[in-house]
């Protein structure tokens, strides 16, 4: 608006210093400026849009980070729980493997210690020799 | 205006440029928390990788008496879970400080249950707990740890540095409420867990040995019983024990006298077991051969000291083998007098008497052997028959390991390998052997020691059906610490030997300490060695036991 009114104003007032040779050339006159901007409205919308998008983006990012940190915490907790379970299972295995526990378990099953073994020695010609005197279990 | 700007700008430069770092540091220090991440203590394993000691994470429940409004109510609820009497809990909850440990070494699940009750003023702490799954098996070797987790005995003490590891730290930023700031600084320096120690001990053999020794000590009169089993050609300790051990899971409550490792820290006089040293020396020096004959009376008097044979007899024409097989004191002293004190001491020391073996365990005794220049006449005739010098049960086994290994003594070792935290395994290098006697002399000794075990010898009770066994019995008077004399001190009965005699695999020494000399150590050797030979699948060689000429 401003630009078009000023242009018509200039056009309306002839210059007192107009040189004579200018008559051969077309008169210079200001054209109304092209409407390059969309006005303030869209700009504000754009800025606001960016702002909102940015805020939402930040919010999403924060939420994701927070959610991840919760998940990490949960996993740490789960890990700790599993460690406890693993530890307990390990303890059971280790205790079950101890000679004292094995001896006790075997005794409860009615097992007795093996006697002295005999050894079967196979000679190169295929004949066998029994070395040692095998003693039945339970007799010492 | 310009002045104001200058002041503001100056202050800005001061704040941001010069003091900036200090303020930033103060701010981040306000936010930054650092937790110590404890390093898990390493494991101790037996030869086959069975765990003898490892660490788990346990829980400790504590109370802050200032925050507990109803001590009796809280104690009543907790008593059952913690298995602590109500009145003890009430006492603790009314104590005049802000930290009272109510229960320790708890399973994490139990601690979670307690915390789930939500009693104000009750807290939980993580506590590393050392577990010894085999309980008393090998406990004297493995040792135990103190309240602060450091090793106080045995391997736990000797390898404390390797086992301990390096604690780490976790740094993170927290908000005002103490909640972790997710996007804040996180810097973790993880803890480096301790390394692993693998022993040469086999827990099955160790268990069997301990059970046999405990059975001896359970007879009411045997005060002590010790045994050591070595691999004949490597000097590795397969098992080592003293009767009446302890459970390292509750070392605090154990009788302090049972916490040591008597087989390396206690000393004894070995008696006739040491005749093997005297005879080894005489054979090596070319003074005697097995079939040489010595007319041997039943007593010998030097100066005013008289030594007799165990049983009275008319003078007998013993062969050298016979002197050993019948364990004649008089015959042995006669040979020792041909050898001389100086050479006898030299061989005693070469066999390892009087010096620690260097085994990887704390508290080893070197034994006692005074230089021959200081020997009295009584000592010079008693030392050849194993009285008047002292050694450990481990040294006693090492002497016979020397003979079993063709005359080369390999200082015994009990650690097979160590594993550093980064996984590098370091196998224990077998110590360089000490040539004590020649291979021929060792073979001759093995032959003569076989005459002891079996028909005609003094140790029929140590023979193992189907196998050839070499060894020697011993009986020594024990000095009475009360009067510094032998009266009332009781006796040591000993046995040391190896099997199979003609292809030695395992060496074992046994000591029993009793008020009388009536219980021989041979049967303990027989019982345990029978188990070892079967357990390690050692077949008999099949060769027949030679005929020995003992008396001509």
Kindly report the CATH topology of the largest domain in chain B.
Answer: Beta-lactamase
List the uncertain runs of chain A.
1-9
Oligomer: heterodimer
Give me the CATH architecture of the largest domain in chain B, please: 3-Layer(aba) Sandwich
Mean pLDDT of chain A: 79
- Main sheet of chain B, how many strands, which sense, barrel? 7 strands, mixed
Structural class of chain B: alpha+beta
Spatial ordering of strands, largest sheet of chain A: 1-2
Number of domains of chain B: 2
User: Proportion of β residues of chain B?
Assistant: 15-25%
**Rg from Cα of chain B:** 32 Å
Q: Could you give me the name of the CATH homologous superfamily of the largest domain in chain B?
A: DD-peptidase/beta-lactamase superfamily
What overall form of chain A do the CA principal axes indicate?
rod-shaped
Given the structure, what is the number of helices of chain B?
A: 18
Largest binding interface between chains? A-B, 29 and 35 residues
Residue share in β-strands of chain A: 5-15%
Q: What gross morphology of chain B would you assign?
A: elongated
Number of strands of chain B: 21
Give a brief outline of the structure.
The complex is a heterodimer of chains A (140) and B (552). Chain A is mainly α and 140 residues long. Helices cover 56% and strands 6% of the residues of chain A.
List keywords for this structure.
heterodimer, A: about 140 residues, mainly alpha, two-stranded antiparallel sheet, 3 helices, about 55% helix, rod-shaped, B: about 550 residues, alpha+beta, Penicillin-binding protein 2a (Domain 2), Beta-lactamase, 2 domains, seven-stranded mixed beta sheet, five-stranded antiparallel beta sheet, 18 helices, about 30% helix
